[in-house]
Write a sequence for this structure.
């Protein structure tokens, strides 16, 4: 399996939805969350995905 | 020089020349840029020349009962099998740096084609040399023209445009999911990327003509070959670390239709459709369930169910 979750980005409101060993970034609001996810994706050569529950993940495919 | 020897020399020269000409005609460097000019040309022309001289020698050697020479020909034919692995290795190495790779199926197809072209060259040289030895040089020249034409005919294969109807599709998002018409393609998290995809992306849908076409479009190797060819022909904005622009092909499970998304350099739906149409059907993907009773019965049952 090649797909790896590199990081999860969420806001304070949904922070309890992410658990485990993945790196979690907490943003102040949705705009910062999207921006952080995009930056992480560019830095780590991944792609940001929206789980539609307040959590975004960065995945390398 | 004795007349018989003169005839042999003429046969060998004409067979050799025709073989080289046939190889040159088959050495087409098109949009795929493979083989690359001039080094790839030299490799393949040299191998083609060796193949044709060996084949051209076979008939005179056989007539003179020089069976060792004929055995040598068989031995050399075995060596041409290495061409396939040579092509495979080269293309596999190039794959590592490709943004939109060809895929192993496409590479295997190309490698097979290069090997088979050498055998075709041998057949051409053998036939022409045989024609000169058994009749005269005029018949040999006619045979040469026919055989070069035959070898060019053998190069023609089928294309995606022959097995499917290709139409423009509408790209749209349902929250973060990208669709082309009713086919889900991928999840895009970045809102800016979604906007760019809607503005500059092209979505098309391939509807297979029958179950044979459906089986071909079902092959992952064939889908990758389509994406590779379209990316080469229309350009692609994809870059390292920007996976949102990765061209994508996904099927509709119920109908077997294939939805494709690509972000070309310039948005031109007609050109993307034309590029998809001219993608060759890979040997490994070509399946014919309709040529079996089971496949036909299933297709018949599906039509009645509709």
């Amino acid at each position: 399996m090649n797909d790896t979750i590199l990081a999860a980005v969420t806001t304070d409101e949904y922070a309890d939805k992410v658990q485990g060993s993945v790196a979690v970034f907490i943003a102040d609001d949705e705009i910062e969350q999207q921006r952080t996810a995009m930056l992480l994706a560019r830095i780590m050569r991944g792609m940001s995905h929206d789980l539609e529950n307040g959590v975004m993940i960065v995945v390398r495919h | 020089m004795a007349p018989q020897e003169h005839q042999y020399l003429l046969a060998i020269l004409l067979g050799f020349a025709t073989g080289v000409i046939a190889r040159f005609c088959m050495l087409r460097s098109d949009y795929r840029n493979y083989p690359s000019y001039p080094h790839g040309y030299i490799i393949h022309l040299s191998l083609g020349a060796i193949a044709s001289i060996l084949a051209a020698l076979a008939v005179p050697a056989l007539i003179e009962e020089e069976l060792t020479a004929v055995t040598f020909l068989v031995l050399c034919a075995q060596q041409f099998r290495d061409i396939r692995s040579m092509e495979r290795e080269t293309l596999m190495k190039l794959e590592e740096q490709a943004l939109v790779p060809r895929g192993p199926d496409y590479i295997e197809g190309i490698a097979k084609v290069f090997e088979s072209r050498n055998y075709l060259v041998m057949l051409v040289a053998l036939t022409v040399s045989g024609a000169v030895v058994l009749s005269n040089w005029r018949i040999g020249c006619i045979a040469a023209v026919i055989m070069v034409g035959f070898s060019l005919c053998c190069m023609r294969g089928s294309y995606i445009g022959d097995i499917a109807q290709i139409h423009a599709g509408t790209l749209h998002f349902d929250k973060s999911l990208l669709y082309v018409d009713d086919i889900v393609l991928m999840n895009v998290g970045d809102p800016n990327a979604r906007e760019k995809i809607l503005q500059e992306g092209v979505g098309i849908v391939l509807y297979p003509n029958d179950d044979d076409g459906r089986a071909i479009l079902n092959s992952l190797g064939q889908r990758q070959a389509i994406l590779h060819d379209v990316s080469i022909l229309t350009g692609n904005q994809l870059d390292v670390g920007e996976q949102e622009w990765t061209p994508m092909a996904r099927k509709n499970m119920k109908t077997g239709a294939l939805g494709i998304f690509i972000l070309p350099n310039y948005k031109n739906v007609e050109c993307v459709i034309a590029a998809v149409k001219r993608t060759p059907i890979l040997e490994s993907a070509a399946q014919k369930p309709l040529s079996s009773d089971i496949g036909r019965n299933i297709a018949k049952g599906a039509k009645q169910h509709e």
In short: Chain A touches chain B at residues 34, 37-38, 41-50, 52, 56-57, 61 (CB under 8 Å).
